[in-house]
Specification:
There is one protein chain. This protein is of the alpha+beta class. It has a domain of 41 residues. The chain is 55% helix and 12% strand. It has a two-stranded antiparallel sheet with strand order 1-2. A hairpin with a 5-residue loop joins strand 1 and strand 2. The protein is globular. The protein starts with a strand and ends with a helix.
């Protein structure tokens, strides 16, 4: 189910049922989106790869962080769908 409501300021409110797997995918896509935006807009470059332990790459997000990444992932999905 997806419900879209147009808001007076020109934005839209989107309400949808999302599975936990889909939530994780949106959060991961949000992180990818931020990395790409930094590479393009801030010209951040990573030259040499680092090696990380699994524990280093696995961390818990606060609700606010997960929510922001989820929204960025949703924005990214919308942009990808518009191309």
């Amino acid at each position: 189910m997806i419900e879209i409501t147009d808001m007076p300021d020109g934005s839209a409110k989107v309400v949808m049922d999302v599975t936990p797997t889909d939530q994780s995918q949106f959060i991961k896509q949000g992180l990818t989106y931020l990395i790409e935006e930094m590479r393009i807009n801030d010209e951040v470059k990573v030259l040499d790869p680092n090696e990380f332990d699994k524990e280093t790459k696995t961390f818990e997000l606060e609700d606010e962080e997960a929510n922001a990444l989820f929204h960025f992932g949703f924005i990214s999905a919308l942009k990808l769908g518009m191309k």
